[in-house]
Write a structure and sequence with these properties.
globular; Rossmann fold; 2 domains; seven-stranded mixed β-sheet; six-stranded antiparallel β-sheet; Luciferase, domain 3; 262 residues; alpha+beta
């Protein structure tokens, strides 16, 4: 954990806190709201992994009441413009606890990887930051689900099977965000791209399995025209997180999320 780099955006600059120490991060987030450091620029943008949020929340409990008040003010919606989580599943208790101490700042979840950068995201509107969802394909990005058993494309409106169960599939992405190739590994590149039926750019196979689900109150376009319709919910890596039992595909990530919520 101490090897992680924590980027903090303040004004028009970016600050890196390395090695990661929760007490130092809280001190910087709180600085503009303490008498000793009131001239410091406020941090307006924070993007970190779930484990960092968890460590910050644990350390928050050890702060004095005065320090907690300054920290809470520093990460409140009126000062911290945006807080993002990615790179791993965000546990529901972590998201809820952060919202509580931050006076209502809801963490935005998104999906990305080295090969595509950031491809799918929840929206800026709070209603579009749905728990457990990574949102919708960003502008200029196309995403689709492909059934891992039948290799059939799960088209919009076909998210449920004939028995009324959700259909899961591998997320495939195409667009300007997708990388060109693995360096000097043509076989690996060929294995991870599939031809498009429409003759357009090839689709990149992310290896992540998800479902698309309509959520009441979200996806109405409040965050932008791109944030409409059913949202993506990731079930995990195809190679490791999908458990087949009793004829069903079970997400290890969803099991973990439910257990952590108990």
């Amino acid at each position: 954990m101490n090897a992680l780099l924590t980027p903090l955006y303040s004004g028009s600059s970016i600050e890196f806190m390395y090695p990661f120490k929760p007490e130092q991060v809280w001190a910087r987030l709180s600085a503009p709201y303490t008498q000793e450091s009131s001239k410091a620029d406020k941090v307006t943008f924070l993007t970190i992994v779930p484990a960092i949020y968890s460590r910050l929340l644990d350390h928050y409990k050890t702060l004095s009441p005065e320090e907690q008040e300054a920290a809470s003010t520093g990460v409140s919606p009126k000062n911290l413009r945006l807080n993002i989580s990615g790179s791993a599943a965000l546990p529901t208790p972590t998201k809820q606890a952060w919202t509580k101490i931050s006076q209502g700042n809801v963490i935005l979840e998104r999906f990305g990887m080295t090969e595509i950068g950031m491809g799918i995201s929840c929206g800026l509107a709070v209603a579009d930051r749905v728990d457990g969802s990574v949102g919708w394909p960003l502008p200029h990005v196309e995403a689709r689900l492909v059934d891992t058993d039948t290799n059939e494309i799960i088209r919009p409106g076909e998210e449920m099977d004939k028995d009324g169960k959700e259909r899961s599939g591998e997320i495939q992405i195409r667009g300007p965000v997708v990388f060109k190739e693995y360096w000097q590994r043509p076989e690996a590149t060929a294995a991870e791209f599939v031809d498009a039926e429409d003759g357009g750019a090839k689709w990149f196979k992310t290896g992540d399995v998800a479902v698309r689900r309509a959520v009441e109150g979200a996806g109405t376009g409040e965050s932008g025209e791109w944030a409409k319709g059913p949202m993506y919910f990731i079930h995990g890596r195809k190679s490791a997180d999908i458990i087949k039992t009793g004829g069903e595909k079970v997400s290890a990530l969803e099991i973990e999320r439910e257990m952590l919520s108990l």
